[in-house]
Amino acid sequence: PPLQLPGSANWHLSKALAAVSFHPDLIYSRCHAGLFAPYALARLLRCPCIVEVNGMLLEERRQLGNPAWKRAALGVGEALALRSAGHVIAVTQPLADVLRMRYRLSADKVSVVHNGVDTSQYVPRPLSQTRSVLSLSPRTPLVGYIGSLQPWRRLEESLRAFSLLLEHLPRARLVLVGDGPLRPQLERLAEQLELG
Known about the structure:
Blueprint: E1 3-4, H1 10-19, E2 27-30, H2 37-45, E3 49-53, H3 57-63, H4 68-84, E4 87-90, H5 93-103, E5 110-112, H6 127-133, E6 142-146, H7 155-168, E7 173-177, H8 183-192
Parallel strand pairs: 1-2, 2-3, 3-4, 4-5, 6-7
């Protein structure tokens, strides 16, 4: 069976697994620079390690204001992790292209597997129905975002830009759907900008 190693427990779990001589068919890891346990364990157990990459960790850290030396260390860790993996899965084609170029990964080492959506729980509806639920006419300009409310998404800039847009399109509406650590700050900023 596949083995997935979660975040901070990696080293302790890998030691425990090695001690009981558990031999998975593969190890699946979400890429976090500096967490080498999945790669070390894969090497120790002689099984492949597959790495999933959901975003550009270094860009996120830069936007969070991490010092350059920390980002440099993360870059080395990320490069080592990706080059050590048996295969890399990126969630978008542009991300796969950047990973291949930045880390000089061969085309056959990187695949794209888009994030899935449970369409039994999240049923796409016609835009006209969405506009009706939001009490918007078909002519009302609508801007939307669905995702996590994380600092690296730069949603504060989106709110400020939308505020400027309203000067030219006063009927426009903005809908943000999601949650995350930035939510209280975004709510305060929306109130300050009188966005509703």
